[in-house]
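#onboarding

Welcome to the new folks! Below is a worked example of what a typical request in this channel looks like: someone posts a single protein sequence, and someone else replies with the predicted structure as tokens. Don't worry about understanding the tokens yet, we'll cover that in week two.

Example request:
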Amino acid sequence: MIASTIIGHRGAAALAPENTLAGIRMAAETGVSWVEFDVTLLGDETPVLCHDDKLDRCTNRSGPLSFLTSIDLPGLDAGGWFDPTWTDEPMPHLSDALLLCQELGLGINLEIKPHGIAADLIARKVFEEVSVYWQQPEKLIISCFDFEVLSAYRNFDLYAQLGLLFRHLPELWLLKAQSLQAVSIHCSQQLVSDQDIKTVKDAGYDLYCYTCNDPVHGKHLLELGVDGLFTDNPTLFADLLPSDIRQPA
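Example response:
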């Protein structure tokens, strides 16, 4: 298994604003050793942490993310929507998130969100940041729903650990995984079947399921052979985390 059994989703999205440095720190406080977060590009091609292509849901602004440049980030509040405690929490540059995870000793599942951006462009921009700011390739999985983006990333990095994202396991998943030299398959915890789990594991791939906030179902999936679970609240799986886990305040 490359990643860990319990992976903080978008940092720890139930405990702190998603895709922020505060969320990453909160995830580390729960005791996880790996986190997942999303990366996309601003209008000036700056890689930032954000799941959506619009600002409305998780910031104090509205409109397309592509309307912003890095100059606009200091005035953006990406935390107050979650709770006033995190008012003025910034939208992070990818470089800042990579450096923080390295400082905290966390592994990363970095999900690329292309939102219509050309595959070669977003893959190159993410690769450039990773190649400069990340020093532990064995603790990084690059994942995406878009096969073309992962294919473009493979062209930039022959040794990257790539993870194919699906909602449910499609018929040609193995052909796609082999062509990318992928290391992992990521599926919805609601749609993955017992047979899917066996098929993926028999083929030699890591299997991670998102987004599981039900400990009973999650532990059942682990018993069936799933390697790891993405969760918004790692404290729900405290018994699967290190015994010295610190509970968030």
